[in-house]
Specification:
It is a single chain. By secondary structure, this protein is of the alpha/beta class. It folds into four domains: about 150 residues, DNA polymerase, domain 1, CATH 1.10.150; about 90 residues, Beta Polymerase, domain 2, CATH 3.30.460.10; about 60 residues, DNA polymerase, thumb domain (Beta Polymerase, domain 3); about 240 residues, Metal-dependent hydrolases (TIM Barrel), CATH 3.20.20.140. It has 24 helices and 17 strands. A seven-stranded parallel β-sheet has the order 11-12-13-14-15-16-17. Strands 2-4-7-6-5 form a five-stranded mixed β-sheet, sandwiched between helices. It has a three-stranded antiparallel β-sheet with strand order 8-9-10. Helix 19 links the parallel strand 13 and strand 14. Helix 1 runs antiparallel to helix 2, helix 1 packs across helix 7 and helix 22 packs across helix 23. The protein is globular. The structure holds 2'-deoxyguanosine-5'-triphosphate and calcium ion (2 copies).
Length: about 575
């Protein structure tokens, strides 16, 4: 399943080799050889992987000798390069981020490293501010100020936004533009359309009737803080919250080609273009061309059809096997929000939520759900007013009463139980075994180290009461690193035990992420896309979870809360160890 390595990937590895060798002060001829080989690979009309498969001799390519050909083969066959791993032991990988600062070449980076022990941008910034850098020959005041400005610029450029936050602006901008006379289509492409959990910027494509001045409308939007550039077909602005927006005007007959191009990902587009080249076609943002004549481009379907492929959903466009699947007619039929019939994780005002049982039930029903598991916290996390045994039992009675009264929605009895540091649960089995849904979750001791963390979760899985592990990685996007876990071992254990895993829809969590969701699916593990709602409005977040699930190739059949209630109950019964 490991996606095929492209020429672009190999070129990037060779350039990394060259940079690190340069910093290490290695042989200049060797360094130049890597750089030349990278250039050759980038200009190659066919994939090196394909050439190797066809038994062709790579040393016939310009600048590729025996040694480099062997390295290309190693990368294609194993996805790794031992020489690079070895070099990383000698030269810290983090030095590469210093090279991105204009004016810092390998020689200067080497000097910073050897003289001051500077290995990354943070340390460089510190040294620049403290005056330590002044002592180094070749680093005058001007240079240092340029370095500080470049670091700041890079910080702005690298800043990413939660997709969920960017979406509010994307929708408002769409409405603002569509409201103008002559504006026809407005689509946000890029990582936003691919459903990534964070986005670097928004890439907006519009089509307009002849003579429409959409740029004045765009730059005049109330949320624009600064216009970076303004042209006839392309403008860039920053919004007041710091989000960058690129807007491009494209012709209706080129819309599909532009949409495919600006949706990316880069890795996906590169493969697509190469496939076209192999068939004597040329694909760019203006269309698909044969012998200089346009043959497709009005719709994305027409672009994919021109290379003999079905349309590929944007969430899959990461060059992670979607081309092979498309070619073999086995693209997944991705799950949709409408497939969800229930939600297995929410909180009420009894713990840290802010809605009563009734309010949560009614909101879930209004969101089109047929069942909702109420899963307030166990007492271990003092801060959230977790339920002890007595309060839990009272809540269960209240759920019985409400279920008799409410139509169109069934409440399930549950609890989100803390997995303690040693893997035991924060509630006796005798209590848990009375519940319909028991969720185990890590809320403390995030930094245990891989061996202990893995042992902790494996131990939790041994508890027969647990149905489901919530937000398994514990990450909070851009705020807290995921726990260090031996994922293959953990997923194998989950699969063997028949336990279920959550894909939590909270925008900061989206956990499982796309990669782990897909690995879980491949092991046949059932997944629940849950809102983890803490209030009645939060059921809207299920959309976010569904997007991440789609990026993980999930179909309705992989997601247990697409089941009708009676089938779900049977599935839950099987999930008990
Ligand atoms: P982001 O903004 O960092 O979350 O990620 P993207 O994927 O939205 O990247 P962005 O905004 O730099 O570019 C949007 C799309 O435009 C990208 O997915 C593919 C396309 N694109 C931009 N520059 C290039 C390029 O140099 N080559 C190719 N093939 N495509 C590009
Ligand atoms: Ca973007
Ligand atoms: Ca962009």
């Amino acid at each position: 399943m490991s996606p095929e390595i492209t020429n672009e990937d190999i070129a990037a590895v060779f350039e990394e080799m060259a940079d690190l060798l340069d910093i290490a002060g290695d042989n200049p001829f060797k360094i130049r050889a890597y750089r030349n080989a990278a250039r050759t690979l980038r200009n190659l009309p066919r994939e090196a992987a394909d050439l190797l498969r066809a038994g062709e001799d790579l040393t016939r390519l310009p600048g590729i000798g025996k040694e480099l050909a062997a390295k290309i083969r190693e990368l294609v066959e194993t996805g790794r390069l031992r020489a690079l791993d070895k070099l990383h032991r000698r030269v810290p990988e983090s030095l590469e981020e210093l090279l991105q600062i204009p004016g810092l070449g390998p020689k200067r980076v080497a000097a910073l490293w050897h003289a001051l022990g500077i290995r990354n941008l943070r340390q460089l910034e510190q040294a620049a501010r403290s005056g330590e850098l002044d002592k180094l020959p070749g680093f005058g005041r001007k240079t240092i100020e340029r370095i500080l400005a470049a670091i700041e610029e890079k910080r702005v450029k690298d800043r990413r936004f939660l997709r969920h936050d960017a979406a509010r602006h994307a929708e408002a901008l769409r409405a603002w533009l569509l409201d103008a006379e002559g504006v026809q289509q407005v689509v946000v492409a890029g990582s936003f359309r691919r459903g990534r959990d964070t986005v670097g910027d928004l890439d907006v494509l519009v089509t307009v009737r002849d003579g429409t001045d959409v740029m004045t409308r765009f730059t005049g939007w109330a949320r624009v803080a600064r216009v970076v550039s303004r042209g006839i077909t392309r403008s860039t602005v920053f919004l007041k919250n710091g989000l960058q927006v690129d807007l491009r005007v494209v012709l209706p007959e080129q819309f599909g080609a532009a949409l495919a191009y600006f949706t990316g990902s880069r890795a996906h587009s590169i493969r697509l273009r190469r496939m076209a080249q192999e068939q004597g076609l040329k694909i760019n943002e203006y269309g698909v061309f044969r012998d200089g004549r346009i043959i497709a481009g009005e719709t994305e379907e027409s672009v994919y059809a021109s290379v003999g492929l079905p349309w590929i959903p944007p969430e899959l466009r990461e060059n992670r096997g979607e081309f092979e699947a498309a070619r073999e007619g086995r693209l997944p039929k991705l799950i949709q929000r409408a497939d969800l019939r229930g939600d297995l994780h929410c909180h009420t005002e009894a713990s840290d939520g802010h809605g009563s049982l009734r309010e949560m039930a009614e909101a879930a029903r209004a969101a089109g759900l047929e069942y909702l598991a109420v899963t307030d916290h166990s007492p271990h996390i003092g801060v959230v007013h977790g339920l002890d045994e007595n309060r839990l039992l009272r809540q269960l009675d209240e759920i019985d009463r409400l279920n008799e009264e409410l139509d169109g929605i069934t409440l399930l009895k549950g609890m989100e139980v803390d997995i303690l540091e040693d893997g035991r649960l924060d509630m006796p089995d005798a209590v848990l075994s009375r519940l319909d849904v028991v969720i185990g979750a890590v809320h403390s001791h995030f930094r245990l180290g891989r061996a202990r963390q893995t042992r902790r979760l494996l131990r939790a899985l041994e508890n027969p009461c647990i149905h489901l592990i919530a937000h398994p990685s514990g990450r909070l996007i851009q705020r807290r690193q995921p726990i260090d876990l031996d994922w293959p071992r953990f997923l194998d254990a989950v699969a063997e035990r028949g336990c279920l895993l959550e894909l939590n829809s909270q925008p900061l969590r989206l956990d499982l992420d796309d990669i782990h969701a897909r690995q879980a699916k491949e092991r046949g593990i059932g997944i629940a896309i849950n809102s983890d709602a803490h209030g009645p409005a939060d059921f809207a977040l299920l959309d976010e979870g569904v997007l991440q699930a789609r990026r993980g190739w999930l179909e309705a059949g992989d997601v247990i809360n697409t089941l009708p209630l009676d089938a779900l109950r049977r599935r839950l019964a099987r999930a008990r160890g």
